[in-house]
Each structure stands twice: as C-alpha cells, then as structure tokens.
C-alpha cells in the first residue's frame, strides 16, 4: 500500500513543514491533498503568520483543495500530513471525507517538541462542565425552533 | 452564572443561525465571540456558500475575532454557540483558548436533524487504521529531522 508514489507525496508534505518553519509562519507541519496523481491542495502551519489558530497545515490544504474543486467534500482524495492530525484537523478531515490519510510523525513526537495535542484528546473525554475550558449548556426554545425549521425546509441542500 | 447578559449574547448567536439557514449559506448554526461586553467575532455556517467544509460557525467566529485582536489566542473571551461544538470546532476552541463556552442545542438535537457529529466523536475512539477514514502511519526520518530542527531553533515564537 505504501510505495514510491506515497513516499513522493509525503516528502512534499515534509518539505512544506520545513519551509513553513524556516519562514517563521508557524510550527513545523505540512500537508498535501492528492487526487489521482495530482496535488490539488497544499498547506503548512500559518498560525503565527496569520494569527489564526485554525490555520493548521491540514485545514489550509483542505480549504485550498475544496476551493479548487468547487466542492465541500474530497471524495476519492488522499491527504498526506507530516504529523498525526490534532482533534481539530481530524474533525476537518471527517467533514471533508477524503479516502484515507497518511501521516509521518506521531502525536507523541509532537508532544516531545511541546505541541501537546494529546492533552486535547484527553480533554475530549472529560464531562463538558469539568473541562479546562468549560462548556456550559444553555437550552433554548428559539435555538430548537431554528433546528425544526431546517428540518422542514423544502429547498435545502443536504450535506 | 447564566443571566440576562449571557442570554442576550446567546440570542445573537441563535439569530445568526437563522440568518445563515435562510440565506442558504449552510446548516442552522451560529456563534459569537465576546470580550467583556463586546462581540468581537461572529459566524454562521458557510459550508455551502464557500464550499469550505471547515467553515463552521465557531471556526468562522474564532477566525474573525483573532483577526480583529491580531492574536492567535482568545484569552479572557467567551464563545456563545447555538449548538454543542463538533470535534473540529472543539479542537479549534482548545487552540484558541477562550475562558468558557456556552451552547444551546445539544449534539443529540443536531443528530435529530441529520447533522450526526456524534458519529465523529465515536470514530475518534477507534484505532487509526480501523477508522472509516483510515489513518495510515508512514514513519519518516526526514519528518523527525524537521521536528528536531524546530526544537533547536533559536528565534522561534512559542505557542
């Protein structure tokens, strides 16, 4: 399953991780989205350059690939990332629905250079109100009414 | 903890959820970022309008607030969202580090209108290679070398 083709795309993702780090854009992370034998999206961490905490390599690459395809899903595509995705990027991957993801460094490797997203994975399992960033429920009739209207909406695009 | 102030901000988030739905931008989700008594970021789901699977209400609001602050963290801020965050948005929230999050509808309410992110929460617990979108390890010496260089980099900004 892993051959010269896959290694070539991964080396591209790793080259982006180095480029982003050297230019000071953010942490040492790179990713590419591949469709067939073509790279249709590439990204590197730009959290510092854009002061955007969501500008992780995978998110940037997914956004670019979707923009190029004019589609909000990456059906049949592959993602190559230089490091195991954090929970945010994993969530983005699920919404984008590529076929598979290849990763080089692990989250333990990331923790060893002080990018500790294993902390976030642990926090996901703690009850909402006990989280370090507490999530506080505020049930609301109007919010539910909007949901009901969506359900009954005739002309909606399902996704 | 929940008073007229909090209810006012939540109603604003809910109004955005309705506005986004009615304009066909995406699903019925809205969010605001609040600092003190000021809304510094607002978002609604724009997945369809922008063909961007990462354009969830919370992500849009966080990006806008960070751009306005010129900072990649939302220290001391609150987020009000019309629905319990999905794993991607929860990850984005952890990276942005607001003080707390208030939510109206639950993920069960979302599942009832066919936005089933509870599926993603379950997938997070499945081993990578067994996931519906498999995550395939490709350990690589060059990827580790980039991590080592980051660790030894003298002029980096830590975050």
From TrEMBL, chains A, B:
Keyword Iron-sulfur: no
Gene3D superfamilies with a match to the protein in the record: Cytidine Deaminase, domain 2 (3.40.140.10)
Pfam families in the record: dCMP_cyt_deam_1
KW Zinc (keyword) present: yes
GO biological process: purine nucleoside catabolic process
Residues annotated as domain CMP/dCMP-type deaminase: 4-115
Keywords attached to this entry: Hydrolase, Metal-binding, Zinc
PROSITE patterns: CYT_DCMP_DEAMINASES_1, CYT_DCMP_DEAMINASES_2
GO MF annotation list: guanosine deaminase activity; zinc ion binding
SUPFAM superfamilies per record: Cytidine deaminase-like
The family this protein is said to belong to: Belongs to the cytidine and deoxycytidylate deaminase family.
Protein name as annotated: tRNA(Arg) A34 adenosine deaminase TadA
Organism of origin: Chitinophaga terrae
Taxonomy of the source species: Bacteria, Pseudomonadati, Bacteroidota, Chitinophagia, Chitinophagales
């Amino acid at each position: 399953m892993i051959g010269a083709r896959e290694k070539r795309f991964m080396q591209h993702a790793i080259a982006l991780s180095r480029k982003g780090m050297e230019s000071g854009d953010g942490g040492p992370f790179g990713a590419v989205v591949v469709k067939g034998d073509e790279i249709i999206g590439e990204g590197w961490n730009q959290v510092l350059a854009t002061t955007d905490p969501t500008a992780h390599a995978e998110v940037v690459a997914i956004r670019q690939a979707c923009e190029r395809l004019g589609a909000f899903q990456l059906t049949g595509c592959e993602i190559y990332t230089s490091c195991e995705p954090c929970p945010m990027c994993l969530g983005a991957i699920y919404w984008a629905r590529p076929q598979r993801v290849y990763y080089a460094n692990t989250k333990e490797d990331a923790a060893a250079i002080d990018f500790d997203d294993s902390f976030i994975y642990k926090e996901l399992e703690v009850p909402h109100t006990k989280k370090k960033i507490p999530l506080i429920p505020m049930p609301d009739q109007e919010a539910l009414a909007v949901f009901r209207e969506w359900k009954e909406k005739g002309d909606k695009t399902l996704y």
